[in-house]
Amino acid sequence: MTEPKLYVRDEGKGRPLVLIHGWSCPGQFFQRQIDALKGQARCIVPDLPGHGRTGAALPLDIESAARSVHAYLEEQDLTDTILCGWSMGALVSYAMIQLHGVARVSSVVAIDMSPKVLNAVDWANGTLNGLNEALNANVLAGIVPDWSRLPARIAGRLFAGGQNPDPNLLEYSRVEIAKADPALLQPMWASLTAQDFRRFLREFPLPLHLIAGLKSQLYGPGVHRWHLENVPRFTLCKFENSGHAPHLEEADRFNQLIADLLHNEKS
Question: What's the pTM value of the predicted model, to 2 decimals?
């Protein structure tokens, strides 16, 4: 009997680029990056546990996701890799490096993410809606019973606040999110909201680029300042017309930024 594995799309040739998706938004949300970059990069796009074609095949937590992505890099013997993690995918990237080191990775791109999602007495840079441990208990309890109405809400919060998103992109996001199984998403949400990478990022061993949507409905300028003040080799890349999904909202500019990293930033 074969051991269950992560489902991975692996397209293109060149320097490895691992595109790691966010919660409830599986690998196909990076389609515009695959199309634009597969001529100059090997685009490796997993569906994380609980998502897409991986589904329930692997344990439903961030550590399992990190181990399985690293196992694929090992299996393919890939080095000099750029990890690009969107939201939850950034946490998976950090966990992978924390667990397995930097031998196969040369830099990390995080898309609109905080090192700690939940706000607390000592932390005001979690989600902008003030989500904390107590409120998150209600969120976790509601994911399965309230799922019929959640995809539209989740999709709406992906995009820039205060302006109307592209209706086709909004509807695509809603439809794709609605295909998910909330019983699998719930433990993944529990795991991602339990993470705290503040201490790790203060000693982060690689260059870290944060692509920040300045109209994000999830994370604000406090997150950007914290990274600037605490992460050693850090670059802030501001996307003025984006929310939580710059790779969707300003795809051409995003793709050019990644292309520049692929060609100019070497280990």
Answer: 0.97
